[in-house]
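Troubleshooting log. The previous structure file for this entry was overwritten by mistake, so regenerating from the original sequence record. Sequence copied from the archived sheet and checked twice against the printout by T.R.
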Amino acid sequence: HGLRMPLLGGPEGSDVAVAFGVARPMVGVAKRTTWLIDPDGTLRRVYPKVTPKGHAAEVLAAAREIWG
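Regenerated output below.
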């Protein structure tokens, strides 16, 4: 999609899931959450309730709106 930013992800129990507060060891999967963070480290958007259908398109549109 020509993104000019890195994507970060990790499995349940990874440092990423723990650091972002979405690890759920009792359930066995991390809570699905998406954050858009700009290069300066400013949190631009949070999607705390991710529904897989249509989510990628929604986030891609927001990223393009923010970064052009």
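The helical segments are 15-19, 52-67. Archived copy saved in two places this time.
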